[in-house]
Amino acid sequence: MIGVIQFPGSCDERDAVAAAGRVGDARLVWHEETDLSGLDGVIIPGGFSYGDYLRAGAIARFSPAMEAVARFAADGGPVLGICNGFQVLCEAGLLPGALLPNEGLRFICRQVELVAEDFSGPFRAEISPGDRLSIPIKHMSGRYFAPDEGLDRLEADGRIAFRYAPGENPNGSVRDVAGVTNEAGNVLGLMPHPEHAVDPLTGSDDGLALFRALARAPQTAAA
Amino acid sequence: MSAVSESRHRELGLTDFEYERITELLGRDPNEVELAMFSLLWSEHCAYKHSRKLLGQLPTEGERVVMGPGENAGAVDIGNGHAVAFKVESHNHPSAVEPFQGAATGVGGILRDVFAIGARPIAVLDSLRFGEPTSERSRYLFEGAVAGIGHYGNSIGVPTVGGEVYFEPSYEHNCLVNAMCVGLAKTDEMIRSAAAGPGNVLVIMGASTGRDGIGGASVLASAELEAGDDSKRPSVQIGDPFEESKLLECCLELLERDLLVSLQDLGAAGLTSSAGEMASKGGVGIDIDVDRVPLREADLEPFEVMISESQERMLAVVEPSRLDVVLATCERWQTGAAAIGEITDSGRLRVLDDGLEVGHVPVSALVDECPLYDLEPEDPDTWIYGNDETLGERVALAAGRSADVADPSAVLCALLASPNVASKRWASEQYDSVVGSRTVRRPEAADAAVLLVPESDRAIAVAIDGNGRRVACDPYAGAVETVLECAQNLACVGAEPLGLTNCLNFGNPEKPGVAWQLDRAVLGLADACRGLEVPVVGGNVSLYNETEHGPIYPTPVVGMVGELPDPVRAPGLAPRKDDRLLLIGPFAPSLAGSELAKLRGELDRGLPQPAIPVVAAALAFVRGEVREGVASAAHDVSDGGLACALAEMAIAAGLGLNADLDPLVELRGGAGESLLFGEGPGGIVLALAESEVAPLLERAGTAGVDAVELGSVGGDRLEIAAAERDVSVALADAERAWLSLAESL
User: Fold this and answer.
1) Residue ranges, chain A, pLDDT below 50
2) B114 close to B155: Cβ distance less than 8 angstroms
3) Nearest-CA distance from A11 to chain B in Å?
4) Is the Cβ–Cβ distance between B564 and B570 less than 8 Å?
5) Which of B429, B436, B452 sits opposite A110 (nearest CB)?
6) Which pLDDT score is estimated for B745?
7) A24 — contact with chain B (CB < 8 Å)?
8) Strand, helix or coil for residue B351
9) Closest CB from B155, B157, B452 relative to A12
10) Chain B interface includes A138 (CB < 8 A)
């Protein structure tokens, strides 16, 4: 069972449940829930948690559910943060770096091409380095930033999961970074929305690979 | 009760005649609280006192209509126990004063209208009008309104899937911001706004009440804007999409659990309007204790509480036994809620302050007795708007050098770069168009947005259209065209219209020329809706869009929802290589009222009169062909004429095309230039495989629908022959021109 955290102000939580539900079971997890036992994986969805009037993700990191997510991740449980979820995970210190306002200071919604890097962890299961994925982005604060030395280390450790394809960087992210993992590889955050890329009819189904990997994660870990 | 000074009613926007009527109805002078309530509910915005008689002409009946005009939003049945709710509404004057918040709260308001009937909002569309982007103020308003719409819609997680923007000098001092929301409901969970059951509790939910938006409906929405209107800024409300997001989820949960008797949003005129309308529809009375309304600031006067337009609030009627569970549900969603009064059988709206009566009026006097006025229409018999020649500079700008204004290739590029024709990607990319996972055709990908509705067994298509300039040329024909254009957009994706919502944006109806525009335009809308058999299920009227510089172009905006059986077959704009291009329909282009006539400074009265039944037959044919999967692409001919429509398809495909319009000359007559750039209803370009051409032409012949082969797709140039007025433009140049709007901002 995959749990999708629902904060007040989440926007994409039902879409994430539907996307994960295509390849397994998924349910919403209320932001005040603290017992995540019984979940095989967690998704922190997109949206504007608690309104995001302060700084994207800055309040959500203090929610009861996020404390539980931190424990879940520390125990090796797979956690996927999408857009606002990525921001929340960075704010919570579960992922390195920060998401700054887009270079153009405007919200951007656009289908972009991603290139998968040679990263490690359960989310790699269905993806090979060099794979190109067509997935939409939609955000106001998606410009990934980390200091140079930090980035060098992330690259050396195989923790850059996705980059925007050459010429596709929509927001000014440093080194075209679109998604990163934690050190253990079981926490992945990315700005593009794989839950909106699960059906060719609505644009692409390239995002399904991540949900399949999430559904398979327990087996991957057991193996 | 405190006395009110003699001229107070005029400051609040009531005429002496209306004040007399109020004293007659009450049998005494109103006090401050009562006068404030009357001034709002008897405003044009709330009472439709200049338009209600006209609106009776619009057809509102239809087999699929679940809710018609009068409810918070209209709704049509889409099968499998589901209905689609939708409505368009204006937020023009607030946006002219403060574009970001004005547009944002416009979206917030229309969302509440839709979830007030128990529908989850699934799409927003918007229709915007500004002065030319050469004006700094117009650019400021445009950028602010787009950012505001995005801010609200994106934050609350409802996709903005379509819209339109026009730039015309007549909107320079009075921009238009119309927002449409589409929602999805289970038919058996829908709810009406009529209050019922004396003894039931009135609950206010959502944000606390402040001084924002005091008098918005009467001060901003029902009078002309004047110079120095910055002083009206406090009347503009501030939007909080997070508050609305919680309120939305909370209301939908309450409805799903069947915990409410009725529900109504608080919009213009706040508590007064909402409580008054709920009581009026239910034939009951309501007592409200303003002391129990949660306030944002402590010292609000009772009249201020009653008319505050603070956003993100709803009013519900709850049975006493369910009050605790309703309040607990609100608390779980962290949305405010308080019991502020009760339903009575008095037929009166009573206002109490900590139990003491501070005002009481008969509900019927407040809601139903506002005097209605007859328009005094008079045809001005002359073109009352300006004319500016800008083609020369636009041609030079698009070509990057001085160019011949008679050269059709140069004119095509100038038209593609004209802000009304050019791509609005700069705006649409600022909107989340994918949240909800329903969007099959995103903005600019097809003529109408196509949305999946897996809850039903079909998809829906939605579009919003209006063309004020053409309505200004001929209010009747222009209004007919507006409806036809919207239906054409739906036909292009194979959708059949189920219902229509409209927003009538006009100048001051007390002026005979504007009254004439309104009168003719409503007749045009009514005739077109009857001709297409599309019921009007709701709408909004925005009058007094006028300044000392004159009225806006008369701008009826219509939104339509249609259904289609198979979204896989809904074509976009992009044809395939080697596809053949056919023009379907009675399209008989004329330069009258066209974009080219505007650029040449040659606008004048008069449009050809559209043949509604002939267009309707063509649309039915196109719909059928699209549903059979015959067309790889479809695009209706609108702004900039056939040459621009073809260019847009070529740009979408990244392929050139060759077309010969000469066969059209034989069929329709006219000069090459009017064939290339003339406008008018009833033209749809279909792209299809060569093997499909002959069978389609045969079917068209059988159906009695005109179909003409124009050419084929391929290469990297636009080559269009038109009675020796030939176009030859590199695709890359056309695309650059079409994508140039961002550069002018």
Assistant:
1) none
2) no
3) 4
4) yes
5) B429
6) 81
7) no
8) strand
9) B157
10) yes
Is the Cβ pair B147, A106 closer than 8 Å?
yes
Reference B558, options B86, B5, B190, B13; nearest CA is: B86
Give the alpha-carbon dihedral of B489, B492, B494, B499, to 10 degrees. Answer: 10
Lowest mean pLDDT among B207-216, B293-302, B465-474, B734-743: B207-216
The 10 Å Cβ neighbour count of residue A166 is 9
Band the pLDDT of B227: cuts 50, 70, 90. low
Catalytic residues of A: 83, 193, 195
A202 CB near a chain B CB, below 8 Å? Answer: yes
pTM of the full predicted structure?
A: 0.95
pLDDT tier, B1 (very low <50, low <70, confident <90, very high otherwise): very low
A71 vs B: CB within 8 A:
no
Q: What is the DSSP letter of B149?
A: H
Residue A212's Cβ-count burial label (10 Å; 0-12, 13-18, 19+) is: middle
**Residue-averaged pLDDT of chain B:** 93
Q: Classify the C-alpha dihedral B27-B28-B29-B31 as positive or negative.
A: negative
ipTM value for the complex: 0.96
Q: Which residues of A touch B446 (CB under 8 A)?
A: none
At B150, is the secondary structure helix, strand, or coil?
Answer: helix
Q: Does the pLDDT of residue B11 top 50, yes or no? A: yes
Residue A202 to residue B333, Cβ atoms within 8 A: no
Categorize the per-residue pLDDT at B229 as very low, low, confident or very high, splitting at 50, 70 and 90: low
Mutate to test the interface with A, among B238, B249, B432, B441 (most CBs of A within 10 A): B432
The alpha carbon of B274 is separated from its chain's Cα centroid by a whole number of angstroms, namely 22
